[in-house]
Structures are given as C-alpha cells and as structure tokens.
Amino acid sequence: MKMTRKKEKSFWEMSDAERNELVKQYDKPIPLSKTRPLTKEERRQFEKMQRSPHRSIFITKNKDGVYVRIEPDLLRRSSRYAAEHKMTLSEVINRSLKGLLAIVE
User: Fold this and answer.
1) Residue 89 DSSP SS3
2) Contact between residue 15 and residue 23 where contact means Cβ atoms under 8 Å apart
3) Is the entire prediction scored with pTM above 0.70?
4) Rg (CA), the chain
5) Is there a contact between 32 and 50 (Cβ–Cβ < 8 Å)?
6) I need a labelling partner for 10 at 20 to 30 A (CA). Which of 2, 51, 98, 99 fits?
7) Angstrom distance (rounded) from CA 61 to CA 105
8) Coil, helix or strand for 103?
C-alpha cells in the first residue's frame, strides 16, 4: 500500500493564522529527544565559529610595504576560484574589494 503525504503549502501562501500556528513551535525550547550529536565536520565548524574574534585576513604595514596574511582555508578556496576562472589571486582579491566597495558606496 502506497502512503501519500498531504502536500504542504508554501510558507508565503499560508494565511496569517496558519503562519502564526506554524511559528509557535519555535517559541519553546527544543526537547533533547529531537536532537542528535554533531558529526565530526559539524563539531569542527561549530568550534571554529565559537572562537572569537575571528579574522581570516591580517594586514601589516611597515616601511617596506603592506603584507597580507590570509587564513589557509580562505587562501585555498580563493586560489581554487582563481584557477577555475583563469585569474591570478591578486585579481580575485582586487575584484572582491572593488565589488564590496561598490556595494557600500
């Protein structure tokens, strides 16, 4: 026998009363029976987020110039992006900063 599920409405298609009823479940604490232990990867990410303050780029200025130290994971991801898009790492950083400043300004 095949079981069928009741098709749920999208959150945005619900009436205000239905939305309020659905959101009520988040007003109380989550019971421990509904939780599970974190996986090794989830635990690693959680502990990384807990560290404070977190900066992935360090900039040092001296008489010889400006030195930038980038977190290894960010450097790896940026380098991979640069290689996939046939760019240099300097171009990726330059575009990133210009894009951010264009949004802010």
Assistant:
1) helix
2) no
3) no
4) 23
5) no
6) 2
7) 25
8) helix
The first and second tokens of residue 13, run together, are 């298609």
Q: How far apart are CA 66 and CA 59, in angstroms?
A: 7
Distance CA 30, CA 42 (A): 19
Residue among 72, 82, 30 at smallest CA distance from 48: 72
**The two structure tokens encoding residue 45:** 């990410």
- The first and second tokens of residue 8, run together, are 């749920």
* Residue 71 and residue 58 in contact, taking contact as beta carbons nearer than 8 Å: no
Beta bridge partners of 67: 60
b/e 15-45 (16+ beta carbons within 10 angstroms → b): eeeeeeeeeeeeeeeeeeeeeeeeeeeeeee
* 10-residue stretch averages of pLDDT, the chain, 105 residues long: 65 88 87 91 87 72 85 90 92 91 88
Amino acid at 4: T
**Nearest-angstrom CA–CA distance, 44 and 37:** 13
Query: How far is the C-alpha of 58 from the C-alpha of 28, rounded, in Å?
Result: 41
